[in-house]
Amino acid sequence: MTKTRHHGNRHGRSEEARQAVLDAADDLLVERGFAGVTIEGVAARAGVAKQTIYRWWPSKVDILLDAFVGDMNEELTPPDLGSLADDLTTYLPMLAAFLTETDQGAVFRALAGQAQHDPAVAVRFRDECVVPLRARDRLLLERAVERGELDGDLDVEVAIDRLLGPLYYRVLVTGEPITRTFTDELVRDFLGT
Amino acid sequence: MTKTRHHGNRHGRSEEARQAVLDAADDLLVERGFAGVTIEGVAARAGVAKQTIYRWWPSKVDILLDAFVGDMNEELTPPDLGSLADDLTTYLPMLAAFLTETDQGAVFRALAGQAQHDPAVAVRFRDECVVPLRARDRLLLERAVERGELDGDLDVEVAIDRLLGPLYYRVLVTGEPITRTFTDELVRDFLGT
Amino acid sequence: MTKTRHHGNRHGRSEEARQAVLDAADDLLVERGFAGVTIEGVAARAGVAKQTIYRWWPSKVDILLDAFVGDMNEELTPPDLGSLADDLTTYLPMLAAFLTETDQGAVFRALAGQAQHDPAVAVRFRDECVVPLRARDRLLLERAVERGELDGDLDVEVAIDRLLGPLYYRVLVTGEPITRTFTDELVRDFLGT
Amino acid sequence: MTKTRHHGNRHGRSEEARQAVLDAADDLLVERGFAGVTIEGVAARAGVAKQTIYRWWPSKVDILLDAFVGDMNEELTPPDLGSLADDLTTYLPMLAAFLTETDQGAVFRALAGQAQHDPAVAVRFRDECVVPLRARDRLLLERAVERGELDGDLDVEVAIDRLLGPLYYRVLVTGEPITRTFTDELVRDFLGT
DNA sequence: CAATAAGCGAGACGGTACGTCTCGTCTTTCA
DNA sequence: TGAAAGACGAGACGTACCGTCTCGCTTATTG
After folding, report:
1. In chain B, N or C: fewer CB atoms in 10 Å?
2. B63 CA to F20 C1', in Å?
3. Are residues B172 and A116, on separate chains, in Cβ contact within 8 Å?
4. pLDDT tens, position by position, D52-95
């Protein structure tokens, strides 16, 4: 059965339109930056009516959140190499590359930026972007606790802040490149070796 | 001397208008957020013509940069208590309060946000906001080097990243409150005690 | 026979839906004016799907034409009092009241208005509204011809224009109220007495 | 002094923009009908920003009223041939041609149409279009009264209705062409000869 | 001590994008 | 197979700001 393109029906939205909007928003963000993502532009690029966008997303931020959440899982799988040192040594450069070099990372940074301007965005940004990312971070540390590599009394949340804070700081504030040397030092420092 | 409000003159700008614009921009940012800072709004609030703003500032970001730089010095003086441990234990909460609770901090966060959206803003943000702030951080560490409390080979820039990165991460990303416990642990960890 | 409301069947259109649409259009026209008659509004008011309207009427004008034609016969029956003078003296105020005070008249005026904007509407308006109304006018005059009260050579169409033109002019152009004095004068003038 | 094109200044509006809007509205009305006159279309055609239109005209009807009033005087000057019979015999075909064949007439008919849909438009239409046109009509009759060709007791307003009503009726309702024969008969009938 | 020229408040201008509204089409499901 | 439901592409609506411009006033030098 060749699924023909449909233009709306009784039971729910057009998945085709949804995906076209998410892709268009993503593309525009990467090509022209956050200000270049306009509802009109997304609609035109996606070949979709503005109203279709407004029907499903309250604002362009919601589109980007949707776009980010959709693809995040595929792009950043934390390693499981058997030792915390190896895992972190591998994972931190991966995370840095994800944040600075991928389209997903561009969306993350745009949302982080918008979160500074709008408290409501900040809430959604944390719930839908930061929390899932930290879940990956936590996974690594919790495996190490199970293996006995870390003290069971460790406050994992604080540990994540201390381990990854410097990395995010460079990404979002100084713009300094994140070298292997830098991440290795962070790991060494964290492990206390 | 009853200085009557003047409407321009041959040589040089009106300091009165300049200050009114900076104040209005600051107020609007705090009251209504970054999107609420419009040139028209600032002009109206400052009792100034739009053209007067455009004559001196290329964009609203430049106004905010101007406003931030002008008052920063007054608000955040690093302590000099004789020992690095004391200095840092005092300074980190000061910095956290500056970033999260003052109008200056609101401007910093707004500019950090906008820096994510616009590379040109990012450059100016780093040069005019981040660099001066880091100069304060560096001052503390360099004094400690002079006192022999820190190794002379220390890469101060990286040290700042590791010491303050977690703090900025909480401010800009997780929104988690920065407690005294948290800063004390950062200091303890940094000093390796 | 408990005729349940049906939602489509294989035996032709729903008369119930048809009447609901015509009534809703009429009501909306009277309540909110021509611009207030939207297909969506009519559908909602009639409890009918938009598509059901589009299936049977090409545009809202067609709905109004349908509504007008349907009820016209009941509202304006020309008198037959035995003399042209009496007939006209009675008929002109009736016609004026029909045009200015009844829902049917409101529909007529709306269609007349729309006829000014759209030549296609103009054609249908004349065929379906003006011609039937003039048939009533003509009836009176032709009866008078048969009775010998009017010259058989009279161009009846032109006569109608001259007799009723001033009345329509007031209705559609000046908005001046049509008094008994005015219609009586028109009749007197027409009869040349 | 060659008046340079200006883009707004302290002392009021751009006459250039005003005229461009009126012309564009007029052109669009003639080319595409009333529904084809959209604010966006007028703005695009006139090379003007939408806001410039909204600044000066509340609605498209106001633009058309403005356009009609501006040019009316040039297009329809009642004759003064010395006798009422000659004046009317000349004037009625002129008026008919004005209403049915000129761009001004198209605007008049469009406004008359819209007046049927909107009472507020009706008021303005009468004040700004009908009254000035009737002033021309009245002029002819009042000159005849002065010359003693008409009874001084004549109710001029009613006389105009009776003389011109049939003409407007054909223009707005039946669409029947207005021949010289028809106007001559109207004049003859009116003069009672 | 006038003439001059720059800065100023004011605000109209050509634009872009906003978020809303209604249009007329299309698809699905039910009776 | 007609009707209800409602998503869809399309496009005009009226608003908010953008950044540019012109204007006439004010004021501090300059000739």
Report:
1. N
2. 19
3. yes
4. 999 999 999 999 999 998 777 777 889 999 999 999 999 999 99
Q: Do chains C and D touch (3 or more CB pairs under 8 A)?
A: yes
Say yes or no: Cβ of A10 under 7 A from any atom of strand E: yes
Q: For the purposes of burial, counting CB atoms within 10 Å of the CB of B108, is it exposed (0-12), middle (13-18) or buried (19 or more)?
A: buried
Instruction: Taking the CA atoms of B173, B175, B178 and B181 in sequence, report the sign of the dihedral they define.
Output: negative
- Mutation to test the A interface, candidates B172, B176, B186, most A Cβ within 10 Å: B172
pLDDT at D6: 42
Answer whether D166 sits within 8 Å of C167, measured CB to CB: no
Which tens digits make up the pLDDT trace of A126-176?
A: 999 999 999 999 999 999 999 999 999 999 999 999 999 999 999 999 999
Measured in angstroms, the CA of D150 and the nearest CA of chain C are apart by: 16
C182: contact with D, CB 8 A cutoff:
yes
Q: Using an 8 Å Cβ cutoff, are B39 and A122 in contact?
A: no
Instruction: Please state whether strand E lies within 7 Å of residue A90 at its CB atom.
Output: no
Residue numbers of chain B with a pLDDT score lower than 70? 1-11
Q: What is the mean pLDDT of residues A56-76?
A: 89
Return the nearest residue to E9, CA–C1': B49
> Given this model, what pLDDT does residue B10 score?
62
What is the pLDDT confidence band of residue C6, given thresholds at 50, 70 and 90? Answer: very low
